[in-house]
Design goal:
By secondary structure, the protein is α+β, with helices and mostly antiparallel strands. It is built from 14 helices and 19 strands. Strands 1, 2, 4, 5, 7, 9, 10 and 12 form an 8-stranded mixed sheet that branches. Helix 14 links the parallel strand 18 and strand 19. It catalyses: 2 GTP = 3',3'-c-di-GMP + 2 diphosphate.
Length: 589
């Protein structure tokens, strides 16, 4: 099936070449082929002529072992000198052994027990002979296709220089793709709303993985023990995932303007391909690679047509960049597909195609950024013009708002009738003075004051006259408080509350008596009072040295109780809270 019977020896003649100028020669041509046999040098017999197999070759469906043999006539050797030659072998089957002139020179993986290992090797040998006999044992129980790739022959110097060039090339490409991926991933982590940056990073990363798996296999060199199945999954991943990711990227740029059909197809293919790669062996997804990849190619062609139609981007520059980049990627993918399936001697192009596509997209993103920057500059000039016009209006509005806020602040703190602080403002000041007294160990005194028989005054003289009476009392109290920290507020109705920070009880009692006498001396006629013919007041005093843990409401409560005591004792008097022992007994008490 794979080879033909022949009686001719498999031989490549290089005897007409000179060692110094021979360069690198592919050992393409007819090799002796012994299927399902593992023969070492010296075990070949003439009883049965070998089959002939043309290399390079893909043996589809071949599972098992085989032996290949080639006789090589070496370049002319003047003076019988020792010449240093080398073979450049890409991965050959899944595991292999190589003998040259009867000497075992290279073992890759393990044939028995079978352990696959896919890595290119350089085999050096030195000889004075004019011929070389190459024997290769190969095994494959892993892959659906046994790849017998091209073997290169040349001087050791030429082979190693070529290998080093390829390693440097692949390393630069691998590193460039990784840097692109990292850069755009960091951009995505900064601007999470733009998913195109995430798709860009994933595309670059997957392509970098592929570049590390093909040709000189940088990743396999860095991880020599990489399992064969893991390597295969990494190698096939870009084949199945790149096109759906590129479509997601392009449709992410287009936004809601583009048709949703390719987007849905891309998502479906992405999920199906992920399941195929994660849960199935290489023999399954390689079959899809060989026979079903045209679905991806057809979808790629359709996407390029849609891009050229101008339905994705309204920008001509963006359309051209996307279309050209997409066409290059598709061409590179087709080239690699036929390279793998038909073993065409072409370099791996998909990684270069993707890198070129990503560079075009980087230019496109820079172009978009430049347009956005220029647009932002124009908008900034317009905004500056508007700002210049609005600055004066803003200043005027700010001044007006300040005036309104002052009025609101005053309304929230000042009693509108008496124009002294209200109960809300008192609570704020009281809290602050309580803390200060506790901190500085100062006494804090409080006076509760109530106008005697004020309801009768209102009922008989009328509420407007009652309001005038309250205003006069508030004015007198406020003018009588001599220290700046002393504070009076209308507590409610005809009740007033006076806060005296730092006043001991004796001082507070004197203030209270002065207020009582001063209000009586206003001589506001009150014919309906039961204690005097003029308006009088009753006052209750409480004083505390504030200590930690004391309830803040206790001082108001004690002053209120003292006020109640003054009313019960006949009104028009000052009463001290029973808890505040004091020798002072103000007049009228």
């Amino acid at each position: 099936m794979y080879a033909s019977k022949t009686t001719d020896d498999a031989m490549i003649d290089l005897s007409m070449k000179r060692y110094e100028t021979m360069g690198i020669v592919p050992l393409d041509g007819s090799w002796e082929f012994y299927p399902q046999m593992l023969l070492k040098p010296g075990e070949f017999t003439e009883s049965e002529p070998p089959s002939s197999l043309m290399l390079p070759q893909e043996l589809i469906g071949y599972r098992g072992t085989a032996t290949l043999r080639l006789r090589l006539k070496l370049p002319m050797n003047d003076g019988n000198r020792m010449h240093n030659f080398a073979l450049k072998m890409p991965y050959f089957g899944a595991a292999s052994k190589v003998w040259i002139d009867g000497s075992l020179r290279m073992v890759t993986g393990s044939i028995n027990p079978f352990i696959p290992r896919y890595i290119p090797r350089v085999i050096q040998f030195s000889t004075r002979r004019k011929k070389a006999d190459i024997v290769i044992q190969v095994a494959n129980y892993h892959h659906r296709r046994m790849s017998l790739n091209r073997i290169l022959f040349g001087t050791e110097t030429a082979i190693r220089e070529m290998t080093h060039r390829y390693i440097i090339r692949d390393s630069i490409l691998f590193g460039s793709l990784l840097m692109l991926s990292l850069y755009h991933m960091l951009l995505f982590l900064t601007y999470r709303r733009d998913r195109t940056l995430l798709y860009f990073a994933i595309i670059a990363f997957i392509t970098a993985l592929r570049e590390g798996i093909v040709d000189e296999r940088i990743l396999v060199r860095l991880w020599p023990g990489m399992p064969g199945e893991v390597m295969m999954k990494l190698g096939y991943m870009p084949v199945f995932l790149l096109l759906p990711l590129i479509i997601l990227y392009i449709w992410g740029i287009a936004g809601s303007k583009a048709s949703i059909l390719p987007l849905m197809l891309a998502r479906g293919l992405l999920i199906a391909s992920g399941v195929l790669l994660l849960f199935f062996p290489v023999s399954i997804y390689d079959w899809f690679f060989q026979y079903a990849l045209f679905i991806f190619i057809a979808l790629g062609c359709y996407v390029i047509v849609v891009i050229f139609s101008g339905k994705i981007l309204t920008s001509k520059t963006g359309t051209i960049l996307l279309a050209v980049g997409g066409a290059i990627v598709l061409t590179a993918a087709l080239s690699d597909y036929f390279r793998e399936i038909n073993n065409i001697n072409m370099p791996e192009l998909l990684s270069f195609g993707i890198l070129f596509f990503l560079l075009l997209q980087a230019y496109f993103l820079s172009w978009k950024l430049d347009r956005s920057y220029k647009k932002a500059e124009h908008l900034a000039e317009e905004v500056k013009l508007l700002n210049d016009q609005l600055e004066q209006k803003i200043e005027e509005r700010t001044w007006e708002l300040g005036q309104v806020n002052q009025r609101l602040e005053r309304l929230s703190r000042i009693d509108p009738l008496t124009e002294i602080p209200n109960r809300r403002y008192f609570e704020e000041v009281y809290t602050g003075e309580w803390r200060r007294s506790e901190r500085e160990n100062l006494p804090l005194s409080l006076i509760m004051m109530d106008v005697d028989f004020f309801k009768a005054y209102n009922d008989n003289y009328g509420h407007p006259t009652g309001d005038v009476c309250l205003k006069k009392i508030a004015t007198l109290v406020q003018e009588s408080l001599k220290r700046g920290e002393d504070f009076v507020a209308r507590y409610g109705g005809e009740e007033f509350i006076i806060l005296l920070p730092g006043h001991p009880l004796e001082s507070a009692a004197k203030v209270a008596e002065r207020l009582r006498q001063g209000i009586q001396d206003l001589n506001i006629v009150h014919a309906y009072s039961e204690v005097a013919s003029v308006v009088t007041v009753s006052l209750g005093i409480a004083e505390k040295h504030i200590r930690p843990g004391i309830d803040r409401g206790i001082l108001v409560k004690l002053a209120d109780q003292a006020l109640y005591s003054a009313k019960r004792s006949g009104r028009n008097r000052v009463s001290i809270s029973p808890e505040d022992a004091s020798p002072l007994s103000p007049e009228g008490n």
